[in-house]
Write a structure and sequence with these properties.
Blueprint lengths: L5 H11 L6 H13 L2 H17 L1 E2 L6 E2 L5 H4 L4 E8 L2 H10 L4 E5 L17 H8 L6 E4 L5 H14 L5 E4 L15 H9 L5
Parallel strand pairs: 3-4, 3-5, 5-6
Antiparallel strand pairs: 1-2
Helix pairs in contact: 1-2
Amino acid sequence: MANNIVPLNELISQFERLPGIGRKTAQRLAYNILEQPPERAEKFAEALVNARRKIHFCKVCQAFTDTEVCGICADETRDKTVICVVAEPKDVMAFERTREFNGLYHVLHGVISPLDSVGPDQLRIKELMARLGSGEVKELIMATNPTVEGEATASYISRLVKPMGIKVSRLAYGIPVGSDLEYADEFTLARALEGRNEI
């Protein structure tokens, strides 16, 4: 039915471009938009355009913000001696939900991936090194994903930072709560042993 309705096909096509959205989900989203009152659909479109126009990178940590410096970097109560390095802006929100980390962040906007032609120069590593030059930072927590690319990125940055006398730590990885040991792979079990804590 949508085959000959050009605007509907375009809407479905745009939804399909989003990560994790297949054809059927894109169709459901498109039909949902069309079933909304016009003013609601217009508010949705306006929010989308406003977000794209007004949100940019924080000049300090490179996370998303609608001000020059994000709220986390501007917060005087945060521990400025610790920086948690993450791959993507959404990782900052994941850490903030825990309410356990009170330091600052730095967003790389990706990881080193030779297969995808992403090298260190495509990441926000220069901006990180500039921040470390102040001498205020005492520890860097590498919080990239435990993938080959994430590990390579963490190692690369660690080698750059170690000569500066800054402690570089890596997140402990292990067994997720509620899972069975028999289903864990060797890498996960090894990391769980490595990152064990005294109880």
